[in-house]
Design goal:
heterodimer, A: alpha+beta, Beta-lactamase, 4 domains, 6-stranded mixed beta sheet, B: 371 residues, mainly alpha, 3 strands, 4% strand
């Protein structure tokens, strides 16, 4: 047995050797295979591998969206097709040019010129219609390709148009919030793109292989669409009524400094940049510098009270409407004799203010104006913002000091004025204005006490009398609500002095004793009336009422009752329900119009007028189908609540 | 027979070169698991070292298992052959019960507390121990059909059926391969072997053509680029990885294919990451390393005097060699893809521990190599 075993052992040794040789052969074969794959096929595989992993040159993400404070969409992006050419791949230039020209309805000559380029890449037409894209796909011209881009749309049309700003065709923000937060909203670029599965779902990775979201980040503003809408509507009505050149309405929430509305007329629809002019695109609330006139007076009073230069009942001689300072004569619209200080503000006496200013002195008054932020940009950061115009006090003559005391001879922007009034409303402590909620503004807390709480309260009390006693602001009165207000009717500087054009303004703060809301209206060059009390105060009033109604602070019924009782001759011919309707070229109907065939942009604008942001299904630039159909009633508010597919548009 | 066992049990030194090679492969595996899984782990688990830490733990477990196997008295190892094989059968059967844990429709794992074990890896070792025992003890009967041929085939067959039920076609092929090599060396008649080879080939073909899923994978391997987005995806990505490596590779950690292109980059396709990051030079060095390891292992087999020692050593060598061969063949696109882990290198506790157990058994037996 041992012998037998011994014999077989040798046998198995040989066999093990055989198997070892077999293994060696197999491993050698695999080693050769590895060499073949890595060395011989390496280049080709490397090329293929990098082609699949490197993101294409035009792997664009979606630009970040802009929302209002409640999450209503103000700006978004939709996919669009763009046509480009790789000229070196085109063999037959003439045939290609003809085919492209036909598909895109462009002049053949221009196309041919582009195709003859020596570049690797030439845009033929950006953001083409789906019909054109389809025609091009059918034509299947070598070297001509389609790529997906995003184009910007603003669902609410001109609503807050200047604030939102605009982007160029490459998606770079040029103005407004689009420019201010361009870097944030810019879509990221993926270094690599992974085809996750056979279905072609894609995953974007950065250089370290981490998944990245190549869509830009969203921006959330402090604006409230409803209030912005109310402000724009009231402003548009006033401008139309008084044939004014331009106008601004600012609504600020006092407790936070949030700008709830920033309306600038003439309106600008960022969906239609081509047809717009620079005058429409101006964000007047930050760019335009005005001499504010009497609306600046409350600050003079606050400074004088704070300095002890006056008491509320200090008697001031208003000189019966004419008073000479140096060689200039100052006039009052409503001549008065001796008045206690608080009535000087109520009746807005220029002479009284000039005396207070002269009494206090240039340095002290200028110091207050500086602390309030005049002559300095706000930190909103919007492009084109003006710092206003405040001369150094050392250069002020007595005439200058007198003028600045009643709001002439100093240039301010609407936002500067708002910031200054915010200080008064905030018990004398400065507070910055906010336009953006997300990203949260990152700034040091630079709140400074300018006035004592008592001073601020006293001035507010004086401003309350402007509205609630026989002051200049009576037209802004709202029953049941106390309001602190101040009118302004500033003569606008013209060649060689002051001309016959005016800036009518009104500032309203409600409630008067502890303001929560600040509304500023400026109407530039009204033609049929001048006075702030007539032109601007009703706008402030309407905006305030509608804002308070929106917040549920006054009832909707009060709104119309108020309209009848207070609106004297000016508002009588524009009852509120009519004022509620937006200025529109399309008559409002009770049923849904036919939207099919319209461009997405146009359809969105149309629906935005009804406060509807439809759900978009499919891709494309034209509306193929709609729900509800034409002729059906509009979806009601109740239906809109909670569901987001009340109105659906199918695109193609 | 048992007399010879006792007489020759003089304790020598374990083969130091084999120890070195084993530790080298284990260490290299750790590095490659970190390199290939870091980014994926970061994304999925938020921890770059998620897989690395686990592999480190498994390596610790593996080293302990190796030490145990190295020191274990042979009598215990051999005496419990039937226990091992019954345990393997039971564990494989457990996979099919609710205790089993399935991924992508294949229930190849058993849940054991927080860990999942893959019984196949241990079944290989158990089968090899059984076959070695069988061929050594039944040497005089091996050439007969009923006693020498049927039992090992039936045992292997039952294991294979259990694997096919999981389904784990690759595992069944590996076990069949082990049986083939053990029979070849053990002395089964060539005619039986040839016939069974034909039979296996026929059965294999039937299995492949009967299942559309296997058939697709089969054809995908023949021309992976034709279905680069579907069945051929893994293989194409693997070849891209090797191709991108060229001569010197992209450098450790700098490979791109593991950025989610290559599924299971730290697992069955880890060699593709090696190929990409270390290039052909690195691959050649790796071939040398496993060549050296297998040479030391086979040298021990040939030098061992006792038949059961020799067959056992040969069997565990085959477990490792077949694993390495099949894995490389799959990632290089020369055989249809099957889920075969690269011993010592691929991520996975069961595979790693089983590999260390194999090394431990080899080292144990290497002490009996007459100097």
């Amino acid at each position: 047995m041992a012998q037998d075993g011994q014999g077989r052992k040798d046998h198995s040794r040989v066999k093990i050797g055989l198997v070892a040789a077999l293994f060696a052969l197999a491993f050698a074969g695999l080693w050769v295979r590895a060499g073949w794959v890595q060395l011989h096929l390496g280049d080709a595989l490397l090329t293929q591998a990098s082609r699949q992993s490197l993101a294409a040159e035009f792997e664009y993400g979606e630009r970040g969206r802009i929302f209002d404070r409640n999450g209503e969409m103000l700006a978004t992006s939709v996919q669009a097709n763009s046509v480009y050419a790789s000229p070196f791949e085109i063999a037959d230039l003439d045939a290609a040019a003809t085919a492209v020209a036909k598909a895109l309805s462009l002049p053949r000559k221009d196309i041919r010129q582009k195709l003859a380029s020596k570049k690797q890449f030439v845009w033929i037409k950006r953001q083409v219609s789906d019909r054109e894209a389809a025609a091009l796909t059918r034509a299947d011209i070598p070297g001509i390709r389609l790529t997906t881009e995003y184009s910007r749309i603003y669902p609410n049309g001109h609503l807050a148009g200047q604030t939102l700003g605009l982007v160029d065709i490459d998606g770079h923000g040029l103005e407004g919030v689009e420019r201010l937060y361009d870097a944030r909203m810019q879509p990221g670029k993926a270094k690599f793109v992974v085809q996750r599965d056979a279905k072609g779902s894609r995953l974007y990775l950065d250089a370290l292989g981490r998944e990245v979201n190549i869509n830009g980040l969203d921006v959330r503003l402090t604006l409230d669409t409803h209030i912005q809408h109310a402000a724009e509507q009231a402003l548009a009505n006033a401008i139309a009524q008084y044939k004014a050149r331009a106008g601004i309405v600012l609504v600020v929430e006092v407790d936070s400094g949030d700008i709830l509305a920033m309306a600038n007329q003439p309106f600008f629809n960022p969906n239609a940049v081509k047809g717009s002019n620079p005058g429409q695109r101006r964000l007047r609330a930050v760019t335009d510098v005005y001499e504010p006139g009497s609306t600046l007076k409350p600050f003079l009073f606050a400074a004088a009270l704070e300095e002890g230069a006056i008491e509320t009942d200090t008697l001031i001689n208003c000189e019966n409407g004419r008073w000479r300072v140096a060689n200039k004569t100052i006039r009052d619209t409503h001549p008065r004799g001796w008045l206690p200080a608080h009535q000087v503000l109520r009746y807005s006496s220029n002479i009284g203010c000039a005396k207070i200013g002269l009494d206090m002195g240039a340095d002290i008054y200028a110091n207050y104006l500086t602390k309030l932020g005049f002559g300095e940009k706000t930190d909103l950061g919007l492009s084109g913002e003006s710092a206003g115009l405040v001369m150094p006090p050392a250069k002020w003559t007595s005439v200058d000091l007198a003028a600045i005391s009643f709001g002439q001879g100093i240039g301010v922007t609407a936002v500067q004025l708002a910031r200054a009034f915010l200080c008064l409303a905030n018990e004398g402590v400065t507070r910055e204005l906010n336009l953006v909620r997300t990203p949260a503004p990152n700034r040091p807390n630079a709140a400074v006490r300018v006035f004592s709480p008592e001073t601020a309260a006293t001035v507010l009390k004086m401003m309350r009398d402007v509205v609630h006693e026989d002051g200049t602001g009576r037209t802004a009165r709202i029953p049941g609500i106390t309001m602190a207000g101040k009118t302004g009717t500033a003569q606008k500087a013209a060649k060689g002095g002051y001309g016959d054009q005016y800036l009518s303004s009104f500032v309203a703060m409600v409630p008067a004793d502890d303001p929560k809301l600040l509304v500023i209206t400026m109407i530039d060059e009204p033609q049929t009336a001048n006075y702030g009390s007539m032109v601007a105060a009703p706008v402030c009033r309407e905006v305030t009422v509608r804002t308070l109604a929106y917040y549920g602070k006054v009832s909707e019924t009060l709104e119309s009752v108020v309209a009848e009782r207070v609106s004297v001759d000016l508002l009588a011919d524009s009852p509120l329900d009519q004022a509620m309707a937006l200025p529109t070229e399309h008559p409002e109907t009770d049923t849904v119009p036919n939207i099919q065939g319209l461009s997405v942009r146009r359809a969105l604008e149309l629906l935005a007028r009804r406060g509807i942001v439809p759900v978009l299904k499919g891709q494309g630039m034209t509306v193929r189908d709609q729900k509800p159909r034409a002729g059906q009633p509009w979806p009601t508010e109740q239906q809109t609540e909670g569901t987001d597919d009340v109105f659906i548009l199918w695109l193609s | 027979m048992s007399g010879t066992l006792n007489a020759k049990s003089t304790a020598g030194r374990p083969d130091p070169w084999l120890v070195t090679a084993t530790l080298f492969l284990g260490g290299f595996g750790l590095i490659m698991v970190l390199s290939s899984s870091g980014i994926m782990a970061e994304r999925v688990y938020g921890d770059t070292y998620f897989f690395f830490k686990r592999q480190l733990l498994y390596t610790g477990v593996g080293l302990v298992a190796m030490a145990v196997c190295m020191q274990m008295p042979r009598r215990l190892l051999y005496g419990m052959t039937y226990v091992w094989i019954m345990a393997a059968l039971a564990l494989l059967a457990l996979c099919l019960t609710p205790v089993g844990f399935s991924v992508n429709g294949a229930s190849r794992w058993i849940r054991l507390g927080p860990a999942h074990i893959q019984p196949l890896e241990f079944a290989k070792v158990a089968l090899v121990l059984y076959l070695a025992y069988f061929f050594a003890r039944k040497q005089e009967l091996v050439r007969t059909f009923s006693v020498g041929f049927l039992p090992p085939f039936i045992v292997t067959g039952v294991l294979c059926v259990l694997l096919l039920l999981q389904p784990d076609f690759g595992g069944a092929v590996v076990l069949a391969g082990l049986l083939f090599f053990m029979c070849l060396v053990g002395g089964t008649r060539f005619s039986y072997l040839f016939l069974s080879l034909l039979f296996a080939a026929g059965a294999g073909w039937l299995l492949i053509s009967s299942s559309p899923y296997r058939f697709k994978r089969w054809t995908a391997f023949l021309d992976p680029f034709a279905s680069a987005q579907n069945e051929g995806y893994q293989l194409v990505q693997s070849l891209y990885a090797f191709g991108s490596g060229r001569i010197f590779g992209t450098g450790l950690g700098a490979g791109k294919q593991k950025l989610f292109f290559l599924p299971e980059a730290h697992n069955d396709f880890i060699m593709a990451v090696v190929g990409e990051e270390l290039g052909f030079v690195g691959m050649s060095l790796f071939f040398i390393a496993i060549g050296f390891f297998l040479w030391r292992a086979l040298r021990i087999c040939i030098k061992l005097e006792d038949l059961q020692d020799r067959f056992t050593a040969f069997g565990v060598t085959c477990v490792l060699a077949l694993g390495m061969l099949l894995n490389l063949a799959v990632v290089l696109g020369t055989v249809p893809p099957k889920g075969v882990a690269m011993p010592f290198i691929s991520y996975g506790g069961s595979s790693l521990t089983a590999s260390f157990i194999c090394a431990g058994i080899l080292l144990n037996l290497s002490r009996r190599v007459p100097s």
